[in-house]
Every structure is written in C-alpha cells, then in structure tokens.
Specification:
176 residues; alpha/beta; seven-stranded mixed β-sheet; two-stranded antiparallel sheet; 9 strands
Amino acid sequence: QALQEHFGVHYVVCTSSCTTGLILALRGLPAGSEVIVPSFTFCATVHAIVWNGLVPVFVDCDSRTLNISPERAREAITDRTSAILGVHVFCNPADIDSLTHIAEEHNLKLFFDAAHGFGATYKGQPLGSAGDASVFSSSPTKLVVTGEGGAVATNDEAIAESIRVGREYGNPGDYD
C-alpha cells in the first residue's frame, strides 16, 4: 500500500525479483512478437523478453542519458512490434513522454525496467506510474534493499492479477 501511494498507482505486486516481475509483466504479449529494448541494459531485461518467446529488437541509446532513444525506437517499429521496454538507467529516467506518445500512436504496450528507479522522479513525479507497468528491484545492489525482491507498479488490473497468479505458480488464491 505504501508503494502504491508512493508511485501513484492502483496496484503494486511484489515479486521475488525484478527479473520475475519483468517476465510476468511481459507474458501477456503475443508469442513471437517484437519488443523494442535499448542496447544498453542488464541482461535480465532481455532475458525476460526471450524467456517469454518474444523477440528483442535492440535500438541505440541517447549518448547524453544512456537511455533508449525515442527516435530509434520509433524507427524500429514494424507490424510485428507489440511493445517498447524502456529502461531507467542508473536512476536516470528515460524520456517517458516521448515513449508514451510513440506507444499510443502505434497502439503498443509500454513497460519500464525501473530496477534502478526507486527514488527517481520524472518531471517532479516518482517513477512508477507511466506505461502499462514499471518493474522495480530491491536486490542488494539497489537504492532500496530488502535482501532480494521486486515490485511491479501498474494501473492495469488485469496485469496486476496476472502477476499475482503467476508469482504463485498459477494459484489464483484457492490452491485449486
């Protein structure tokens, strides 16, 4: 509840790791579809794409911010693209406004790997409320540490429920 209030979202679902959160957040995308991702990121970002049977499409980053270049992301969109997965590198927010506009214009899902995002803001607002979901890490190398873990922030009830069920081996709560 505290994270929901902090991020300004309706749902936050805690997971065993940021990687697990990314895997579960992306699993609703059509199998074999393309996900645009920055060329500069940790391998787990791309593992979450590949482990879901999706195709990563790498695009260059902005040399000033080290984040995904919205212009390169736009150029990489094809009829097989289902989503953009931006990364907030080193607590430095990606260009959320531009990526949101591109995703809306092309009817794409927009996710953020916010592993380094706890405490960062974008235009005065905490990271976490943009896109379809933002996934955070609380592993020992991050700013907020819980030993290990992750959290998915979203305003999408279906994504939140899918993650709740997925993190518990498909158990919707009745163990049936």
